[in-house]
Amino acid sequence: MDRILFLTLPVHDLAASRAFYTGLGLPVNEMFSDEQIVCLVVSDAICVMLMDRDRFADFTPLPVADARTGTQVLLCLTASSRAEVDALATAALARGGSEFRPRQDDGSMYARAVADPDGHVWELLHMDHVAGG
């Protein structure tokens, strides 16, 4: 059986979050979406579930963390090229995201980090396997 990873993130404004992520090119699976949840398809095996904070709280007895005030998870999305890293970062910034830290370039790896409107930080990473050996 193939496994599917569902990464679920609590969000303050579902419509704004949906616009942010679809603006990065992630399609929505409407079959798994409703007025409190948006299912974004990253690949056949990975989905990002954006969940209204109140609905998210139904799944845990613990307080729901605010990504703007603390780190709750580390997220990384690979890109096929440096240009794609920059294109994703540019799209994120144009849709309400923010630059989390300066870009990093060590020759074989090129990365930028952006935060979505709720403060979830995404590392956008290209690994040059040729340059890295």
TrEMBL record:
Gene3D superfamilies: 2,3-Dihydroxybiphenyl 1,2-Dioxygenase, domain 1. Coiled coil: none annotated. It comes from the Bacteria. Residues 3-127 form the VOC domain. Transmembrane segments: none annotated. This is VOC family protein.
